[in-house]
């Protein structure tokens, strides 16, 4: 079987697309913060110790009352026994707020943070703390977050707080900790396929955490990936490691977890990030102090910005918190390179047959062209939601289309005349 020149060219494009995922580690580079976004290096942490000592089985509202922190039941989320506390800024001319969704078991950590923010002179945005009793059998944290946000933004149920528009949100949940193979702070990025949080927000956390030092931080499920140097792989072993980290990022973050309320935040144009805090980071001591410093610096960085974070919500790929392919151009070309030949092959064959002397396109050619275009359209629908599915679909569809094309070409006299 001899391929015509145009068939060879189309096949070469498809083969280049097949090699794309293997080449992705060579696009790795350090992820930097947009110069127009934040200035996290201009802040210094003020926490020296941290971790309030609370008795086991503490009552959240009693603790808040004892420390002079105002609170009110969160409307619409009764199943989680949610409590809202607003830490007022000395001046909030922009009428904006920072939102903290916190698992109530992390009160020893969040209490110190609330007291620190309440006594600060630099706070220029109100801080809203919503504590959820996530351990309750009837509590669905994702549903609770969605209901609270809808109540705040759409029904005005929280209008009496006067905290204004939510500029950014941080979700603090209880994590497995290093004994479960994670870092002291595990960053969870996503819960809706294809909707990652703002990359500037992720990078800000990494930078301020580096300033605070001490506690370990990593992408959830990828703690070992943080130890690798960022850059193109230098050996087959480095390539295999980078590919493994990339696969875990795709499975655990791009495709996300079903119980993360990322879709609700995104629909309201709120930049949100989830941090899973290990038990060691909430029990007091050195790790807790370092964690509190990181959270304080993150608050100060988000507090200083004069406008909302740049909405860099495009689909990026990370090998670790600070290393990745931050532009979709690094990966989208290989999906396009496998998709284009699926449509080009039957369309070019249809065009050549229609131009042949006395020939008209056969029903089989027309059907193949229509089916191929349908496959490409289906792949486009999944391009940003599940690019691996789009890639696999086109990678398998092209050989099938080529086989049908060659069988059809061998069976017709008009095709033999080409």
Task: Report the major sheet.
Answer: 8 strands, mixed
Radius of gyration based on Cα positions? 27 Å
Number of strands: 11
Overall 3D geometry? Answer: elongated
* Strand neighbour order, sheet with most strands: 2-3-5-4-6-9-7-8
Kindly report the average pLDDT value: 77
Q: Strand percentage, roughly?
A: 5-15%
Structural class: alpha/beta
Task: Give helix and strand order, one letter per element, not per position.
Answer: HHEHEEEHEHEEHEHHEHEEHHHH
Helix content: 40-55%
What is the terminal separation in angstroms?
14 Å
- In DSSP terms (H or I, runs of 4 or more residues), the helix count works out at 13
Question: Which residues sit in consecutive blocks of at least 5 with pLDDT less than 50?
Answer: 413-418
Quaternary state, please? single chain
How would you describe what is shown here?
- The protein has helices at 5-18, 20-23, 60-66, 107-118, 141-155, 199-212, 236-254, 262-267, 286-304, 329-355, 363-381, 387-411, 413-416; strands at residues 29-30, 72-73, 83-87, 96-103, 126-132, 165-174, 185-188, 217-219, 271-277, 317-320, 323-325.
- Residues 413-418 have low confidence and may be disordered.
- Helix 4 links the parallel strand 4 (96-103) and strand 5 (126-132).
- It is elongated.
- The protein is 44% helix and 13% strand.
- It contains 13 helices and 11 strands.
- With 418 residues, it is of the alpha/beta class.
- Helix 6 (199-212) packs across helix 9 (286-304).
């Amino acid at each position: 079987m001899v391929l015509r020149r145009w068939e060879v060219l189309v096949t070469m494009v498809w083969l280049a697309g097949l090699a794309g995922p293997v080449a992705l580690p060579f696009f790795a580079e350090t992820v930097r913060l947009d110069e127009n976004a934040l200035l996290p290096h201009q802040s210094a942490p003020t926490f020296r110790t941290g971790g309030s000592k609370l008795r086991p089985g503490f009552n959240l509202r009693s603790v808040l009352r004892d420390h002079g922190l105002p609170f009110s039941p969160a409307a619409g989320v009764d199943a989680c026994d949610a409590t809202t506390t607003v830490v007022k800024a000395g001046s909030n001319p922009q009428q904006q707020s920072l939102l903290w969704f916190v698992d109530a078991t992390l009160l020893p950590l969040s209490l110190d943070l609330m007291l620190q923010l309440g006594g600060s002179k630099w706070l220029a945005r109100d801080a809203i703390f919503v504590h959820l009793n996530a351990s309750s059998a009837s509590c669905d944290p994702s549903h609770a977050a969605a209901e609270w946000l809808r109540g705040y933004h759409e029904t005005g149920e929280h209008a009496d707080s006067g905290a204004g528009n939510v500029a950014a949100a941080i979700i603090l949940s209880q994590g497995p900790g290093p004994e479960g193979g994670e870092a002291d702070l595990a960053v969870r990025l996503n819960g809706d396929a294809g909707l990652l949080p703002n990359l500037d927000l992720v990078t800000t956390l990494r930078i301020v955490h580096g300033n605070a030092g001490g506690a370990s931080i990593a992408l959830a499920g990828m703690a070992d990936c943080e130890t690798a140097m960022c850059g193109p792989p230098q050996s087959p072993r480095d390539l295999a490691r980078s590919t493994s980290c990339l696969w875990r990022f795709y499975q655990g973050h791009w495709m996300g977890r079903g119980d993360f309320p990322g879709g609700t935040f995104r629909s309201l144009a709120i930049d949100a990030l989830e941090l899973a805090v290990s038990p060691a980071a909430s029990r007091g001591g050195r790790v807790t102090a370092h964690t509190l410093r990181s959270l304080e610096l993150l608050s100060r960085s988000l507090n200083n910005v004069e406008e909302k974070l740049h909405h860099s919500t495009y689909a990026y790929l990370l090998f670790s918190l600070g290393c990745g392919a931050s532009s979709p151009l690094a990966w989208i070309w290989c999906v396009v390179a496998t998709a284009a030949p699926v449509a080009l092959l039957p369309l070019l064959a249809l065009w050549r047959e229609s131009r042949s002397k006395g020939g008209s396109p056969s029903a089989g050619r027309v059907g193949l062209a229509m089916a191929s275009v349908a496959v490409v359209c289906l792949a486009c629908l999944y391009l940003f939601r599940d690019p691996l599915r789009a890639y696999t679909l086109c990678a398998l569809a092209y050989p099938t289309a080529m086989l049908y094309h060659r069988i059809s070409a061998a069976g017709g006299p008009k095709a033999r005349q080409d």
